[in-house]
Design goal:
By secondary structure, this protein is of the alpha/beta class. It is 40% helix and 17% strand. The chain contains 29 helices and 30 strands. The chain is rod-shaped. It starts with a helix and ends with a helix.
């Protein structure tokens, strides 16, 4: 009789432990709640796939470890998965007091996790929009994820409900470890008691005598097995933490709620879902219930509670009963079970990204870096106290900035220039070939009174004209050297096929000689300091081609090709800029921040030529300064930024008949970069496509800043020059705007750096472009160069050092010559004269002898001779030659 009664008790306990009474409920009509206090929330926007790099990593254990740490704080934990028609959102919440602990825990174990703090009001709004239908779920989950490549259960929910409005929420509160221990003790006592009832011995008579048999009581065995399952969870909970958990499923539509319920059960129900299987019950008024993210507080009725082995009990020495498994719709779960319900997805979905996991260096190895570029980034976290810096003196070892449009390249350049000027007072020159962005530095603090902007190739009232004579050398640089530099610039900018380079070289030498320059002695025999112009070169080409004796067809081809290239430099604003006698002073250009815009020059070849000539004159100036100061090398004192540098420093193949001269010219400029560092001049080369740049450009730059690059060949090229590994090379295609991989001497591998955003003046104080250009125009005209004084020169002006004083006399001689018809005689006789200078002198004597003019000084003859020769209609080159012969005589 006693055994039968025990059997009935065990049966009731078995049902209470498994909460089988819930199978008779279809919906919950009355809900009691337990408030969880003030909460804070973070949305997990995404993370990096760090698990792909660790073969033996148990992904599920990661979040369990976080929950184990949070459990010790006796806090409330909330996990929410929210679906909409367009995306999936993942949220993590916690008692507000432990907000930073939650944030740091997530960042410590999920590299590159992207967290955004969400207010309580925002979170309530998100859930309330989906709480028209739903209910609660409870029970023990079965972790069905096995192997690294298996789909997580939480991902199955997301996949099954894509495009619908729903929410899946888990709320849990940590259980005190003392209660866990007391519950475990109670459980062990119950297990020992049940184990004694498992086997009952009986005796019965038979043909073969007394027999002993054992009859296994099935219900006792199953009950004990369930207790063992609970014991395993409690044992895990003692080590990792236990939680009281309420789960909720919500949806905007009834059918979606039913679909979510079914998916939830099928996803988490399995062979480990014992003794409480996963159940999901619909409930009314979920809109009100879920608004504060509470726990379901309905308790077990007394008739169920008295039979639950772990419900409530008295312990010797206690005045009140110990209560453990007393809730009707809550489940007491270990951190392991809670982690199964609260997995962080590792599969990318709409609204939730999974980036490649790549590690960059974070430790700064340089101790003397006084120039800060930005903050080093670890994962998604900007380390504000860990800054990437280099010595300012290293800028004369040159830098390289590459990245596609919109990646932050220009902002990085501006930020660098701003600090260079404001913090270190180092001037700079920007050569901007494609866009107009750097004029905006006028709105950056520190530049208002110092910045100059030139609009090269533009001459209208809304421009700041520039002047540069390609044939003018700077300082004491040998003329032969300047001519070599000039010819290299032509070859680097224009496609010149043989024999065009030779013809061009011969013509260039000729125009210098016509102005009295002795190449060997590096002096002007006429005692003047004037240089040829593009007009002189253009008019000399015909004579040179004729003298070289080419056949008519080749003569026509060479003449047409060379003239076309030279003429392209003389047209419109380009001609006003380059077909001039004097250049803007390099000393004035290099003493302050300067921006040169080349956008108005449409021809890329012409842009390259202008850039090249600027570099040539800069190089000559630096060389002269080094000589004047009598030193072997100088510390960094000036930076030049070349945007779209491939126009000049192109990656040109050395093979092929036409490409070879250009390749040699590019090599000249790359060698120039290598040499000029000892003169205190630094270069910052900026371009979108690394493969377009000459290879030596990458080799000769110390500081490399790489923004987002997509093309594989570009990434591999720049990556190899920065000692990147394969993962880093792939990763730079995903860099966000403003982030860059940075590498310089002292780095083992690149660092990921967040570049600071340049803070420009806003509001009414901001200057717009037309205002800036107007101010620059007046400043340049007043302080640098009055370009209007460099136009309108006559043919003889290059031979004259001072302003014109004999214009009336010049007009008088030309009028007499035309009246008498002597200009025809001059045109016929002069080319035939061996001593043309003597013939011209006799002509002046004729004018004086007949009383047409008074006695003439040498300067008067020099001035008037130019106009006189113009009347002959002889080729310009011939007139220049006659002029040079007369002045030399």
């Amino acid at each position: 009789m006693r055994i039968e009664l025990k059997k009935e008790q065990i049966n009731r306990k078995y049902q209470a432990l498994s909460r089988s009474f819930l199978d008779r409920e279809s919906a919950i009509s009355e809900v009691e709640i337990e408030e969880t206090g003030e909460l804070c929330f973070f949305q997990i926007k995404g993370l990096a796939n760090f698990w792909d790099r660790e073969e033996n990593l148990n992904y599920d254990s990661i979040f369990m470890d976080i929950l184990s740490g949070l459990h010790s704080m006796h806090t409330t934990f909330v996990y929410a998965l929210v679906g909409s028609r367009t995306d999936i959102s993942v949220y993590i919440g916690m008692t507000v007091h432990w907000k930073e602990a939650l944030k740091s825990s997530l960042k410590s174990v999920y590299p590159y996790i992207h967290l955004t703090e969400i207010s309580n009001q925002q979170m309530k709004k998100v859930t309330s929009e989906r709480s028209q239908f739903g209910g609660t779920f409870m029970g023990y989950p079965t972790n069905k994820t096995s192997g690294e490549n298996e789909i997580l259960q939480i991902e199955r929910l997301c996949t099954g409900l894509l495009g619908e409005d729903w929410a899946y929420i888990v709320v849990a509160k940590g259980i005190h470890s003392l209660l866990i221990d007391r519950t475990h003790e109670r459980l062990l006592d119950e297990m020992e008691l049940v184990s004694q009832t498992l086997k009952v011995s009986t005796s019965s008579g038979g043909a073969f005598g007394d027999e002993s048999s054992e009859r296994t009581r099935f219900i006792n065995q199953r009950y004990l097995e369930n207790l063992e399952m609970v014991e395993q969870r409690l044992e895990t909970g003692r080590a990792k933490g236990m939680w009281r958990m309420s789960g909720y499923f919500l949806a905007a539509k009834s059918e979606t709620a039913q679909k979510l319920r079914n998916l939830l059960i099928s996803t988490y129900l399995g062979d480990k879902s014992r003794p409480e299987k996963v159940r999901a019950l619909h409930a009314t008024n979920m809109h009100e219930t879920i608004s504060t993210f509470p726990l379901m507080a309905n308790q077990l009725p007394f008739n169920e509670l008295e039979f639950h082995p772990l419900g409530q009990w008295m312990r010797p020495g206690n005045e009140t009963p110990i209560q453990s498994f007393i809730y009707r719709y809550q489940t007491l779960v270990s951190s392991e079970d809670l982690a199964t319900f609260s997995q962080i997805p590792r599969k990318e979905m709409p609204g939730y990204f999974v980036n490649p996991y790549v590690e960059f260096e974070v430790a700064e190895r340089r101790e003397n870096g006084d120039f800060v570029l930005g903050n080093i980034v670890k994962g998604n976290e900007e380390l504000e106290q860990n800054r990437y810096s280099v010595p300012t003196s290293d800028f004369n070892r040159h830098g390289l900035i590459v990245g596609m449009t919109g990646g932050g390249k220009s902002n990085t350049s501006k930020s660098l220039l701003m600090r260079l000027w404001n913090d270190h007072k180092k001037p700079f020159l920007v050569i901007e070939s494609a866009k107009r962005e750097y004029w905006e530095l006028a709105n950056v603090p520190g530049f208002a009174d110092e910045l100059l902007v030139f609009t090269l190739g533009a001459e209208d009232k809304d421009s700041v004209p520039f002047r540069i004579n390609p044939f003018e050398k700077v300082g004491d640089v040998p003329l032969q050297t300047h001519i070599d530099y000039l010819l290299s610039t032509f070859k680097a900018s224009f496609e010149l096929v043989p024999p065009m380079p030779f013809v061009l070289e011969t013509a260039v030498y000729r125009i210098y000689e016509n102005l009295g320059w002795d190449i060997l002695k590096n002096e002007n025999v006429l005692g003047i300091d004037k240089y040829p112009t593009l007009d002189d070169l253009l008019h000399t080409i015909d004579d040179i081609v004729t003298e070289l004796g080419y056949d008519q067809r080749m003569k026509s081809d060479i003449t047409a090709a060379l003239k076309a290239r030279v003429t392209s430099l003389k047209v419109g604003g380009k001609g006003a800029m380059m077909n001039t006698a004097k250049s803007v002073s390099m000393e004035k250009l290099l003493s302050r921040p300067v921006v040169m815009e080349l956008e108005d020059i449409g021809d890329d070849d012409v842009k390259a030529f202008v850039m090249g000539i600027l570099l040539v004159q800069l190089y000559e100036y630096r060389k002269q300064k080094l000589k004047e100061e009598n030193v072997s090398k100088k510390e960094f004192e000036h930076l030049i930024v070349i945007e779209e540098a491939h126009r000049l420093l192109a990656n040109v193949s050395k093979g092929g008949e036409g490409a070879n001269p250009r390749a040699k010219a590019v090599e000249f400029f790359t060698n120039l970069l290598a040499e000029i560092r000892s003169y205190g001049q630094g270069f910052l080369i900026a371009d979108q496509v690394p493969t377009k740049l000459a290879p030596d450009t990458l080799k000769n730059t110390n500081l490399k800043i790489v923004h987002r690059i997509v093309m594989k060949e570009d990434r591999e090229l720049i990556g190899q020059s920065m000692n990147m590994n394969e993962e880093q090379i792939d990763y730079i295609s995903t860099l966000k705007r403003g982030y860059a991989a940075v590498y310089a001497e002292g780095d083992a591998r690149p660092k990921l750096v967040k570049m600071p955003l340049v803070d420009e003046v806003r509001g009414e104080a901001r200057k717009y472009r037309d205002q800036v250009i107007t101010e620059m125009r007046e400043t340049v005209k007043r302080e640098v160069l009055d370009w209007e004084q460099l136009t309108g020169e006559a043919g003889g002006c290059p031979y004259c050092q001072g302003p014109c004083q004999h214009k009336e006399l010049d007009e008088k001689i030309k009028a007499i010559t035309l009246e008498k018809g002597w200009h025809v005689t001059l045109a016929e006789k002069l080319p035939l004269q061996i001593e043309s200078a003597a013939y011209l002198e006799r002509y002046f004597e004729l004018l004086q002898k007949n009383g047409y003019v008074p006695s003439l000084t040498f300067n008067q003859k020099r001035c008037c001779l130019s106009g006189l020769l113009e009347l002959t209609k002889l080729p310009r080159s011939s007139r220049q030659k006659l002029m040079a012969q007369y002045l030399g005589k």
